[in-house]
Amino acid sequence: MVASAALHARMEKAWGEVSARFSAYELVLPGSPAFVCQAEACQAQCCRAFSVNLGDAEVERLARENGTAPIEFLECEDGKPIALPLAQPYLLARAEGRCKQLGADLLCGAYAGRPNACRLYPYFVIFVDPGTARPVYAELEGMEPSFQAALGSDTVGPYEALLLGHTDCPGFTGPAMSEREWRQLMEETYRLQFGAV
Ligand code: SF4
C-alpha cells in the first residue's frame, strides 16, 4: 500500500501540469468537501445547461425504472429516437431549455433510472501522462492499473488518475471526505465513466 501523502503529492503535481486545460474544474482529494446537491441555489443548473447522451443499456434502464417507452424520454424525429454516430448515440429529451425529467420542484423525475452522466456529475476522472504532462484520452490499457495505483495499491500504472469536481456546482458544501469516502467516490466515478451501467 502506497502512503497517502506520497500519492496525493503526485496527484497535486500532475494536476499542476494540466489544470490550465481544465479551468472549470478543481482537484478533489481526501479532505475536500463532499457533494450535497443544492438545487435551489443554482435552480438545478446542471439539468438545464447540459444535453445528456445515453447508450443502449442506459436507455433500457431508464425505460425499466420509469415504466415508459424510450420515445417518451428521448429526443425523436419522425416518431423514432435520434441516433447519433457516437458510442452513446441517444439524447435525453429537452424542453424549454431544460431536461424534460426535471420537475418544477427541481427534483429529478427519473432519479432511479437516470443516465450515467447524471450519476457522475459534478465529478469526473482524468488520466495524466507524467512523461508528457498531458491528459490521455484513448489509451485504455494503462487506465486500470493507473486507477488501482490511485487507490493506493502497489500496482504501477503509466498515468496519474485524478478525480476532478466542476467548480460551477454549488454543492461542495458537505463534510470533509475521509480517505475511505474519497476512494469510494473515485471508484464509483471511474466505473461509471469507463464502462459500468
Ligand atoms: S435525468 Fe434527472 S438528473 Fe439527469 S438531467 Fe434530467 S432531471 Fe437532471
Would you kindly provide a written description of the structure presented here, covering whatever features stand out?
With 197 residues, the chain is of the alpha+beta class. The protein folds into 2 domains: 104 residues, no CATH class; 72 residues, no CATH class. Helix content is 32%, strand content 16%. The longest helix has 15 residues. The relative contact order is 0.22. The mean pLDDT is 93. Bound molecules: iron/sulfur cluster (SF4). Iron/sulfur cluster binds next to loops.
In short:
The chain is an alpha+beta fold and 197 residues long.
For this entry, give a set of tags.
four-stranded antiparallel beta sheet; 197 residues; two-stranded antiparallel ribbon; binds iron/sulfur cluster
Beta-strand content: 15-25%
Structural class comes to alpha+beta
Instruction: Kindly give the count of domains.
Output: 2
* Number of beta-strand segments: 10
Bound molecules: iron/sulfur cluster
Element string (H = helix, E = strand): HEHHEHEEEEEHEEHEH
Number of continuous helical runs: 7
Please mark out the parts with pLDDT under 50 across 5 or more consecutive residues, or reply none: none
Residue-averaged pLDDT = 93
**The biggest beta sheet, please?**
4 strands, antiparallel
Task: Give the overall shape, derived from the CA principal axes.
Answer: globular
Strand arrangement within the widest β-sheet reads: 1-10-8-9
Question: How is the secondary structure organized here?
Answer:
Blueprint: H1 4-18, E1 25-27, H2 39-42, H3 45-49, E2 53-54, H4 56-66, E3 76-77, E4 80-81, E5 90-91, E6 94-95, E7 98-99, H5 116-120, E8 123-129, E9 134-136, H6 143-150, E10 160-166, H7 179-193
Antiparallel strand pairs: 1-10, 2-5, 3-4, 6-7, 8-9, 8-10
